[in-house]
Sequence to fold (397 residues):
Amino acid sequence: MIASRRIVLGVTGGIAAYKAAALARALVLAGAEVRTVMTDSATRFLGPATLAAITGTRPVVDLFDDPAVSPHTDLAAWADLVVIAPATTATLARLAAGLSSDAVSATVIAFAGPVVLAPAMHTEMWEHPATVRNVATLRDDGYRIVGPAAGPLAGGDVGIGRMAEPDDIVSAIDAALAPGDLEGLRVLVDAGGTREPIDPVRYIGNRSSGKMGNAIARAAARRGAAVTLVTTAEPPDDDRIEVVPVETAQEMAEAMWRRAPEVDVAVLAAAVADFRPARPADRKLRRTDGLEAVPLEPTPDILRGIAEMPERPFLVGFAAQVGDLAGAVDKARSKGVDLLVANDVSKEGSGFGTDTNEVVLVAPDGATETWPLLAKDEVAERLWDRIVALRGEEAPT
Ligand code: PMT
Fold:
């Protein structure tokens, strides 16, 4: 969500201003275009030259000395999002009262889009009734507030009031930029590779890391959906996602089939084993036992099971292909999905374990659309854009 977005970083006068440099850098590294605005007192804590070097443009500090005629409205017109970090007690009070008495507050008041505030101050100031009132007003006005956290404060004190860490502010910005178009939707995702036991310590498995499914679950949660992720892999660190850990295809099938009738959209990104040992040993097999063959039997087809439900959700399957797409087109036609996402897992940067993926969307009528190699997060965002559009087409008028 942050890549290519225009973010104005406002810095106000507190000791946490030094962390604004790290935040600016994290935003630039995430691909955002960043411009900055500082209050006079912020410049006592952090040199404008530092922010200029990190972002490539000079901060606006003085509305009258700046070469632009109206720097605060220029910034406001340019930005997709404004973040104030740190936001001091005085800044919160100004914004709650609608005052535009410095470059930072003037920019915020001139801006109509999402604003993220990262307060930082001493515990007594954060807990003062006036600040509590101002924060409540700001929340009512639609400002998003991240932190403060508890920990060591300036002057050797310890308590609540530390500015949130730059990574947490980046996550809050990411969430604030998400469209929110999945609000009210229930989403079920599966991820990871199933493990089919041969004996209590050995299994048949595959190289799925769960990254693709995690990205889909995260993007859906960011956009407001209630998400359940059934997974064999390490889930994302996101408390908006309900995680159901499973191991085998059977467990995954039971978890998915139980929930599928109650959701609006199901996305099956897991690499489910097609076969499992027919008679797993109940004790560890020893070399000396000898083992000529492991007889296999088919696992349940989770996708087909959902496709055949009388009340089924909008259904998106994945297809791991090697080489050509013919198999994926057949799967899209025969498996009863609304959309199939095919990836050539033999391609560099695609498929198992990578952070990127090159996918081809296949419609049930066999029509295809190829996307370039993208970060899995970006594939997930685009996939949700497409699901929203396709569900919109299906909705009765
Ligand atoms: O987890 P990563 O490391 O990020 O890798 C991502 C991925 C390569 C695993 C993912 O992008 C992907 O391709 N997932 C589907 C892998 C797969 O099993 O493809 P398939 O063509 O064998 O299966 C087709 C569809 O049927 C899939 O949606 C699969 O989840 C589903 N299926 C398969 C077998 C089975 N018994 N039950 C199923 O529901």
